């Protein structure tokens, strides 16, 4: 069974967007995964197709209504649908490569794209939505975040990347950032490829790459490096 994604959004025209190109686009054409964009406004009950209202207790902005969104979710997830229901939200748990791999190994996902000031908490609770964040910043809506999540997942589906090892050797897969890469020409503006990479000694090359990955992680993501060191210590 291919990976099946359903996106609930006020802007279905934003999909597939970038996912219609390159590896993800070719995989979509082959049927390695499927994508449906559902217009939330189709489930509004008034002639203006209203989906939001003022926040209870006052305050700025508008809130996506629970009753309207619940109807859209129920339409997209018939009884027995095993797919997780995700809400792209800046207050959600950070998206990690481990979560991406788990999603790629599953049947798909139903992704809710929030807008306005937020989503009525009652529908989050009633429909068991898993809030997911792609970073500590605010977007104008959940659509760009949904595209990011789907891109991360789709590239890990079987057959999407030409070389499956490519996915196993990237940043975050081992708990470290990825080592530097080089290719021809040998010399570029006075900078040469590190000699060890042209030595043919695969053991030394592996050690160098590991050392560079640890160095970069310690410099740029000390939080990851501490976790990596802790995990190494626990395996001794």
TrEMBL record:
User: Which residues are noted in the entry as S-adenosyl-L-methionine-binding?
Assistant: 114, 134-139
Principal cellular location given in the protein's record: cytoplasm
Stretch forming the signal peptide: none
Q: Which residues does UniProt call coiled coil?
A: none
Subcellular location, in the record's words?
A: Cytoplasm
State the superkingdom.
Bacteria
Q: What enzyme category does the UniProt record give?
A: transferase
Q: Which reaction does it catalyse?
A: guanosine(37) in tRNA + S-adenosyl-L-methionine = N(1)-methylguanosine(37) in tRNA + S-adenosyl-L-homocysteine + H(+)
What the entry lists under InterPro entries is as follows:
Alpha/beta_knot_MTases, tRNA_m1G_MeTrfase_C_sf, tRNA_m1G_MeTrfase_TrmD, tRNA_m1G_MTases_N, tRNA_MeTrfase_TRMD/TRM10
User: One MF term in GO for this entry?
Assistant: tRNA (guanine(37)-N1)-methyltransferase activity
Q: Which residues form the tRNA methyltransferase TRMD/TRM10-type domain?
A: 6-225
A Gene Ontology biological process noted in the UniProt record is: methylation
Alphabetically ordered keywords of this record:
Cytoplasm, Methyltransferase, S-adenosyl-L-methionine, Transferase, tRNA processing
UniProt xrefs under Pfam families: tRNA_m1G_MT (PF01746)
Q: EC number(s) per UniProt?
A: 2.1.1.228
Q: Is rRNA processing a UniProt keyword of this protein?
A: no
Q: State the family it belongs to.
A: Belongs to the RNA methyltransferase TrmD family.
Primary role: Specifically methylates guanosine-37 in various tRNAs.
Which NCBIfam families has this protein been placed in? PRK00026.1, trmD
Q: How does it assemble?
A: Homodimer.
This protein's name: tRNA (guanine-N(1)-)-methyltransferase
Origin species, per record, is Neoaquamicrobium sediminum
Q: List the taxonomic lineage.
A: Bacteria, Pseudomonadati, Pseudomonadota, Alphaproteobacteria, Hyphomicrobiales
